[in-house]
Structures are given as structure tokens and as C-alpha cells.
Amino acid sequence: MPPEPRPSSSFAIEVPRALLDRARAGERAAFEQVYRWFERPVYTLALRICGDREEASEVLQDTMLKVIDRIGHFRGDSPFWGWLRQIAVNEALMRLRKAKQQPEAHDPLLDEREDDRAPPPPAAADAAALQRALAVLHPTTRSVLWLYHAEGYTHEEIAALMERTTSFSKSQLARGTRRLRALLEPDPRLMEESAHA
């Protein structure tokens, strides 16, 4: 069986070399263009990791300030978007760590065994339902799910970013997937009851 293809990141925007050179030279219009192109992916990533619009806005601003400050250090041996995404992820995870979230309470829905690597259920196509379900998840679990499924990070990369083990990343992915399934898939008993009503 061939390996599952990695998702394409919303950050995967090719930035012309000339624009990067202008930004390195300190040209304000070039920075504004970079900001406009990456504002939505950075904000979305931060919102998914932090779970709070105000925190996401702060991450966006801090990320872009760091990009402006460090663009002269970008060597160009990898895509610019990957470099910028790494800054955004680090900023969001740093805010998550600072928030000192309470430990996740035990959830009996997580005791069910499911395929840990399976993508979220088909109902996830409903963006509003997915957003509500993600908001219920513990921030760490939500972060792992987003980094793995939406951004295409491997468990090894997530473990390094979160300063945890690979097995921690895998268990959080399994936990989050099971929880999302429980939240997004309709309860067959309720559907049967409504059909007979």
C-alpha cells in the first residue's frame, strides 16, 4: 500500500525572489505584499492551535514582526513559506505553553478504539461543524491534529516542535481523531428515534 500523500499546506505560496530581495532591502511595499499573502494562513493556524481569536491575532502580529526582523537571515535553501510557517508555528505553540492550560479531563468517548491514522470523518466537510468540534478539543490535541492533517507535519516534526515524544504526537492524534468522530458523526440511536417520530 503506497504511503498516504501529505496534505498541501495553506502556506504553500511561492514568493518571487525579486519580492524577497525587496523585502530584505527594507521596502515597505514588499513587506505589505508578504503580509497580505500570508495573513490568512498564519491567522488560521494560530486560531486552530490557540483556539482564541485574540490570541490568533497576537500570533499573526508577532509572526510578521519576526519575519520583518529576521528576513535578512533567510538563506533561501528551503521555500520561504516553510520558513515563515515555522515562525508562525513556534509563536502559536509558545503562546499555548504560556497559557498553562489545565490537564485534559478524561473523556469516556476516547476509550473506543479506532484507526488512529484515519482522516477526520466525512462530516468534517462542514466547516462550521468542524470549527465547533475543534473548539471543544484540548488545545494540545487540537494543535497536533491541525499540524498533522492540515499542515502535513510528521509525528517526528510535531514531537520536536512541542518538545515531546513521537508517541505523544501519535497518541494525541488518535485521541483527537476519536473525539472528532464522536462529535461529528451523528448518533445512530438519535437518527433512528427521529425517523420514527
UniProtKB/TrEMBL annotation:
A Pfam family annotated for this UniProt entry: Sigma70_r2
Region feature Disordered, mapped onto this chain: 98-124
Domain RNA polymerase sigma-70 region: 38-100
Keywords, sorted A to Z: Sigma factor, Transcription, Transcription regulation
Source taxon at top rank: Bacteria
InterPro entries: RNA_pol_sigma-70-like, RNA_pol_sigma-70_dom, RNA_pol_sigma70_r2, RNA_pol_sigma70_r4_t2, RNA_pol_sigma_r2, RNA_pol_sigma_r3/r4-like, WH-like_DNA-bd_sf
Domain RNA polymerase sigma factor 70 region 4 type: 129-180
Listed Basic and acidic residues bias regions: 101-118
NCBIfam families: sigma70-ECF
UniProt family annotation: Belongs to the sigma-70 factor family. ECF subfamily.
Name this polypeptide is given: Sigma-70 family RNA polymerase sigma factor
